[in-house]
Amino acid sequence: IFAPIMDDGTLHIYTYRRTPATDYITGHIAANIIGCRYTITDNPAEAQKADICYSPTRIGDGLHIHPSGLLEKPEAYDIGNIPVGMWQGLPTLLHDGIGDTGFDLFAAAFFCLSRMEEIGAGTLDRHGRYKPDASILSRLGIIGRPIVDEWCARLGEMLSRERHIHLAPRKEAQRIVTIDVDHAFKYRHKGLLRTLLGTARDIVHGDKAQLRERISVMTGAGRDPYFCFDYITQALSGDRPDTRIFIHAGPKGRYDRKSHHNREFDAAVKALSADFTIGIHPSYHASFDAKAVRHEIDRLRRLTGSDVTSCRMHYLRLRIPDTYRMLDSLGITDDYTMAYSGATGFRAGTAIPYRFFDMNAGRTLGITVHTTCAMDVTMKNTLGLTPSQAIGHLSGLYDRVKDTGGEFITLIHNSSLGEDTEWQGWREVMDWLTRH
């Protein structure tokens, strides 16, 4: 039941058909992106005075957004041919040229945030990950823009100017540095056989620099480059960016280098937990196995003595919606896996955290999605960037986030901060992140 609409600075939305998806996306856009009080109703008696009319026909003098039909029954909507266009210089999805925006802004935002195009997708890589070049945002060349936030910023400007909606001051971009600890040691604690095989490989390949580095570490003359947690603490403590550290606590496997059950590493994790938020980095082995992930969460909880409520999946193995259903059932409240290993940018078209909507179940889960926009391995190995070039690339992404507000989240590995032969100079990137 809604009170009669009055000119009180609140955003009043009329929709001709309310659904869980419509309530979810209009609420997120109004409260979390635009930043205003809002009401939503499907009562035709309120349509004439609404600030936004989300209906096939224009009613009243409010802003008219023409629905595409996607939000009525999203699980049955055919996304095989999404029409695109332009609005106020911004590329759009679900464009039909009707209404004041020319596209279904609500449904386009829902399409991006829910990751509809990933559900049941067959375009997966060998690790079972959705390929970035399969995404419509990538094909349009706008993966590097938080396009949903840009659409909503323009919408907010129109509502403020034309409908006198009271908007909260735009938030400043929040810098969040996240560190994945896949393995704590490059040379130490590998066992005699692996050490001998590694040494032989260095000799056969003529890798003199790594051979010298290996010998220095194994003889005690030098420190293992990956075990650089003192540097991490120094770089990120105090008046520095918000920090999340994700710890791999699973068993050894083909894509998992075991780090736990080592007193030195366990002591380091305990020390890190005193200064930073520690999250779980579920093993490759456990990616889609709730029981295995629970076991690893419990192991990390015992180690730190604290609850574990944040997560990033190892290898960024994210399966929509299964991963979020699983994490939600395990008590994870915040996930940072929403990123591509093969591209930088905004996988869900946003830099603003959002609760995940389970499209098939028709409900909002208790887990908040945080989009990570750049990973060190992607910049170095996929894009071929030098540290200075990576800083320039990150600066461009940061400028995009600053324009709309949100979280500028980067992913760095402890293994890229050790100044070893492979990652020489990449501490420059961390130094830049702590200053901007």
Keywords:
436 residues, single chain, 34% helix, elongated, 4-stranded parallel β-sheet, 8-stranded mixed β-sheet
Short characterization:
The chain is of the alpha/beta class. Helices cover 34% and strands 17% of the residues.
Mean pLDDT over the residues: 91
Radius of gyration: 24 Å
Strand content: 15-25%
- Poorly predicted segments: 1-6
Number of helices: 13
- Look at the helices and sheets and give the structural class: alpha/beta
Number of E-state strands: 14
**What order do the helices and strands follow?**
EHEEEEEHHHEHHHEHEHEHEEEHHEH
- Which percent range fits the helix content? 25-40%
- Gap between N and C termini: 47 Å
- Based on CA inertia axes, which overall geometry fits? elongated
Biggest beta sheet summary: 8 strands, mixed
Account of the 3D structure:
It is a single chain. The chain is α/β, with parallel strands linked by helices and 436 residues long. The chain has helices spanning 20-34, 105-114, 136-139, 147-163, 192-204, 208-218, 229-236, 263-275, 290-304, 322-329, 376-382, 387-404, 427-435; strands at residues 11-15, 38-41, 52-54, 63-65, 84-87, 90-93, 174-181, 242-247, 277-280, 310-311, 334-338, 354-358, 363-375, 407-413. The strands form three sheets. Strands 7, 8, 9, 10, 11, 12, 13 and 14 form an eight-stranded mixed sheet that branches. It has a four-stranded parallel sheet with strand order 2-1-3-4, covered by helices on one side. A hairpin with a 4-residue loop joins strand 12 (354-358) and strand 13.
